């Protein structure tokens, strides 16, 4: 990962983020609102985006939606205040990979960026591997192209969603602890809440299940986590 876009209407926040990231040798650009950010995204390719939720003209939720329409691979980290609990959930549901709560520490910020960097590296290394697929019932997971199909129809996944599905498909029928999923996808150094796993599971169910409210593939294992049921 080399190029990061910061979107926040508060100049001091943009300045702090830029200083932290540039100190780690990342290329950084910034925008003060969503419309300005989308124009920059048209003109440049970014590996990751930090996006504030509360902004004038176009809020961060709408920016996330637009970013996901354009790319399933770009890393999106939303910036929220401690009191904006529902904004975190909404941001994750519309396609964000992670969130950082303000005020944040440089160590916390870089842990989030490092997790995104690992995913970018996985995509690069997967493209160099011999073709490898895993088929379970109606679903086929292609490791090399990082895609999932159901009865031959492509299901659009973010890189986080793909990693969760890869973990499920590598362990069909096995109950996976939330902590194990968190460590596998976000890394053992991740400092955050396990609910990020639950929100991503909700998002995946909306994509893979015939009836998301009555899932038959991604099944809850009460008191533990989830498993992919080989129905």
Overview of this structure, please?
With 231 residues, this protein is α/β, with parallel strands linked by helices. Helices cover 43% and strands 23% of the residues. The chain is built from eight helices and twelve strands. The strands form three sheets. A five-stranded parallel beta sheet has the order 2-1-3-4-5, sandwiched between helices. Strands 6-7-8-9 form a four-stranded antiparallel beta sheet, with helices on one face. Strands 10-12-11 form a three-stranded antiparallel beta sheet. A hairpin with a 2-residue loop joins strand 8 (147-150) and strand 9 (153-155).
Q: Characterize the quaternary organization of these chains.
A: single chain
- Radius of gyration over C-alpha positions, nearest whole angstrom: 18 Å
Approximate helicity band: 40-55%
Q: Helices and strands: which structural class?
A: alpha/beta
Strand order of the largest sheet: 2-1-3-4-5
What is the residue-mean pLDDT, rounded to a whole number? 87
The biggest beta sheet is recorded as: 5 strands, parallel
- Residue stretches low in confidence (pLDDT < 50, at least 5 long) are none
Element-level helix/strand string: EHEHEHEHEHEEEEHEHHEE
């Amino acid at each position: 990962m080399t190029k990061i876009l910061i979107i926040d209407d508060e100049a001091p926040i943009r300045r702090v983020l830029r200083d932290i990231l540039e100190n780690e040798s990342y290329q950084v650009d910034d925008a003060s609102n969503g419309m300005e950010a989308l124009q920059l995204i048209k003109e440049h390719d970014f590996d990751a985006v930090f996006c504030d939720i509360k902004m004038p003209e176009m809020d961060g939720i709408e920016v996330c939606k637009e970013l996901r329409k354009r790319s399933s691979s770009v890393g999106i980290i939303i910036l929220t205040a401690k009191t904006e609990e529902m904004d975190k959930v909404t941001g994750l549901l519309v396609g964000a990979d992670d969130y950082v709560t303000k005020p944040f520490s440089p160590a916390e910020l870089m842990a989030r960026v490092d997790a995104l960097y690992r995913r970018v590296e996985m995509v690069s290394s997967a493209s160099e591997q011999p073709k490898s697929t895993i088929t379970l019932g109606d679903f086929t997971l292609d490791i090399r192209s990082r895609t999932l199909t159901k009865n031959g129809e492509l299901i659009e996944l973010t890189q986080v969603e793909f990693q969760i599905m890869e973990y499920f498909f590598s362990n069909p029928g096995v109950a996976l602890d939330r902590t194990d999923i968190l460590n596998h996808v976000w890394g053992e150094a991740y400092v955050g809440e396990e609910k990020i796993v639950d929100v991503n599971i909700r998002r995946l169910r909306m994509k893979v299940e015939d009836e998301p409210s009555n899932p038959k593939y991604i099944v809850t294992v009460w008191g533990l986590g989830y498993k992919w049921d080989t129905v």
